[in-house]
Amino acid sequence: MNYEIKIAAELQVKPHQVQATIELLDGGATVPFISRYRKEATGTLDEVQVATIRDRIEQLRELDKRREAILKSIEEQGKLTPELKKSINGAETMSKLEDIYLPYKPKRRTKATIAREKGLEPLAERIFGQTSFDLEAEAEKYISEENEVKSIEEALQGARDIIAEWINENANLREKMRKLFLNEGTFTARVIPGKESEAIKYKDYFEWSEPIKTAPSHRVLAMRRGEKELFLMLDSCPEELSATAVIELEILEHAANSAVDQVKLAIKDSYRRLLKPSMETEVRLLTKKKADEEAIRVFAENLRQLLLGAPLGEKSVMAIDPGFRTGCKLVCLGPQGQFLHYETIFPHEAQWKAVEAGKNVQSLVESYSIQAIAIGNGTAGRETEAFVKSLGLPKSVIVTMVNEAGASIYSASDVAREEFADLDLTIRGAISIGRRLMDPLAELVKIDPKSIGVGQYQHDVDQNALKNSLDDTVMSAVNGVGVEVNTASKQLLTYVSGLGPVLAQNIVDFRTENGPFTSRAQLKKVPRLGEKAFEQAAGFLRIIKAKHPLDASAVHPERYELVEKMAKDVNASVKDLMSSEDLRSKIILRNYVSETVGLPTLEDILQELAKPGRDPRESFEVFNFQEGVNSMADLKVGMKLPGVVTNITAFGAFVDVGVHQDGLVHLSHLADRYIKDPNEVVTVNQKVQVTVMEVDIVRKRIGLSMKADPFAERSKNPNNPSPAPKHAKAEEPQGTMADKLAMLKGKFGK
Description:
Elements (H helix, E strand, L loop, with lengths): L2 H9 L3 H12 L4 H7 L1 H4 L4 H30 L5 H9 L3 H8 L9 H7 L3 H8 L6 H6 L11 H17 L2 H14 L1 E6 L15 E5 L5 H12 L3 E6 L2 H12 L6 H50 L9 E5 L6 E6 L5 E7 L5 H17 L4 E5 L4 H9 L8 E5 L4 H5 L2 H6 L5 H14 L1 H5 L18 H19 L1 E2 L5 H5 L6 H14 L16 H7 L3 E2 L17 H10 L4 H6 L1 H5 L13 H12 L29 E10 L2 E5 L6 E4 L20 E10 L4 E5 L6 H5 L20 H9 L5
Organism: Algoriphagus alkaliphilus
Keywords: Coiled coil
GO molecular function, one term: mRNA binding
């Protein structure tokens, strides 16, 4: 099959771009490598396009595998005709392919099979012809003790069973029925009688109905979860009259007669017993897949934004994992994140303990030349922040809250045990809080993305699809930023293009045994890191203190010779070229175009020479919550507060305003204009100003708005005084405690 033309048409690109991409992928190249270093071959396709080609080619190849298996099966049955083969080869979707195969698919013993064994197929054929004849007289011919047909009705029932199966196996009809279910079907949810109190979290779905074609991802997954937990009954069908009408239009050929009456009975039976269950299962799988894709897309985008959060950089950091009764776990870290000191302080106990804690913090700030203090945003976080800020520390010391989601997950993980085998879990958690302030990307890659608290129904979606998407996201983020090979952890190196866990460990071992790498070329000495892996990885690995200046940049080693020629042509060294804008301005890029190097690569090289190894992430900015607002009890409707976006869903964004409970800005309150996707206006970690619209302490719900005048609609309509955004209606029933924390608090780890 000519995959290139089909995929090119779908993506609206040229076939040669797709062909080149497929060849590179088949040759073992990664998505980041292809999009960054093979722009001439692909015609500058970006990461998303390359990944789409990768996934689509895999789907089409799977389709062809199934096609071959079906052709072989039918041929072995001796039933493969030229027309049938043409239909199979022309099928472009898996569902169409399976519809064609259904009549030939080996099946268990059915009602139709039993009827055929009784010799009733000729009667079924006569009836299905729908011509007028003496039905009872014809059926009577099939009464036989030998075939166990005892009556006319039994003969007719057997014939109808056979016809019902024929109707079910009609490929054209199944396609029409599939469209009917998708376009006119309805999701109908009802509470299981007697479970009203247990299922209270699904109250919005006790009597719920909406069209399948418009049901959003989060509601589809919510209803399915309620059904799985045995709280809801869920149907997903069109009206039966509409469905049988479609079948009759396809099947019936004559006006009313006794044979047509029998076919109509068979149609009703076929729909209820065969077509409806089959189509409902298929449509539910299709809608689940679509809902999964949307939920995974939301999760992946949130994760990308979180990973690419602004890093503080290499500074000496004090990290505090706050707590009341058990005290605050405090660690001091060096500029590269190395663990230096640990102790527990009790600033929220007796006054003398608070005084002692303050002295300890002041002493440690001085002893370890602390430049920033990271405080986890969990229990006692705001109180600990206020305590630290009251100590009169030098103004140069940054004090900031850090989202600690997943810190406790990390502290109990194999990764943490490997890094800090001799340290207690609580110490590891504090270290993670400090390190994620210094470099969110480097630290968060150590945690299962599902535990970071930025997902939507992550436990309900296809786990393989979720893992693949999140792995792609992490790899894209890691390679987009670049990795310093001499300080990177094994986990961070694992996501570098072309490496993986084995080579990552080998690099760390080599570094431990031989000291820091002094050049990219030295990577070739790492066991099992061959030419292919080096080609894929080298451009994304940085060696800041390398002898060759380009080793600290994103210029690939395969282009060093080209850059050296550029430098020679302007009578300068590579180092001079990198430091002088005047020298770079003298370079005429078209002079260096060749069969393998075009303007896109040359432009990338010139940009990299200007800012070698540049970090694409935003610069770190200190953020402070509103002083005096530490709990939900402090919130008042109409209050305007600073906040940080912690999670984005299809129906809005969750914002941390410093009260240990994230509030929801519903989609309708994200902007003064209409928006379809929250990502149009907000990103994870974005600092925003919000207005409190609703505070429900009992249900732990906070309604927020980002509109300039969120109460305008209420003032226009005094008969509708409720200021609450529409987040309470069938948006997000809370499931497991883990999901509740992930979605409503955005703090999975605490």
